[in-house]
Write a structure and sequence with these properties.
By secondary structure, the protein is mainly α. The chain contains 6 helices and no strands.
């Protein structure tokens, strides 16, 4: 390969890298928008376009091993958004087998799940604010389920960032448990006071 061809090769590769980064940021931004809609209990969301974008991104990097790292964040955000949606609206925890294997790497499925715990904590706190015991307990139950699942994995040398995310998940679970216990006790007390006032 002569100098001109060498320069052209790296120029094209650099252009592809820039395109991948731009597209990757777009997928992450879309996922964040979807999550905001879910937080507001907006059920009318279709993931078809987002799934197509993720597949296109996967295709862009398939021949370049050194670019595959740029898939990690978009895939994790994608998992977070879809798992979160299914918990909120379908009372269902999506297992890895329910994702197409070529769409999401196993590592990114596990890491994406860790992030769902933070979203569920927000839903617990929102339910507490609205005195909704049923929803608060439901979301906390899913937090526990996901936490128990992710703690089955201790492959820290092959899943980068897992230990840190597990530690964050544990902290969020403990805080949320405290918030939920205090809320239920406070609600019982308020109901007792209300009962006494009406007697």
């Amino acid at each position: 390969m002569d100098n001109a061809k060498l320069i052209k090769y790296f120029e094209e590769k650099d252009n592809l890298r820039e395109a991948i980064l731009k597209f990757s940021r777009e997928v992450v931004r879309d996922c964040n928008e979807y999550i905001k809609h879910i937080q507001k209990l907006n059920k009318n969301i279709s993931f078809d376009e987002l799934t197509d974008k993720l597949r296109e991104l996967n295709t862009m990097v398939e021949n370049y091993d050194d670019f595959k790292k740029y898939l990690n964040t978009p895939q994790q955000e994608y998992v977070e958004a879809i798992v979160f949606y299914n918990i909120v609206f379908n009372n269902k925890f999506l297992e890895y087998s329910e994702f197409k294997e070529n769409d999401v790497k196993p590592e990114n499925y596990i890491l994406g799940l860790c992030d769902v715990i933070g979203e569920l904590r927000r839903m617990v706190l929102e339910s507490i604010k609205n005195d909704n015991v049923e929803d608060a307990e439901k979301y906390y139950g899913f937090m526990e389920k996901i936490y128990e699942f992710i703690m089955k994995f201790d492959y820290y040398h092959v899943i980068d960032g897992l230990r840190r995310k597990q530690d964050i998940s544990r902290s969020l679970l403990e805080k949320t448990n405290g918030d939920l216990v205090n809320f239920i006790e406070n609600l019982k007390l308020r109901n007792e006071i209300k009962k006494l006032k009406t007697e």
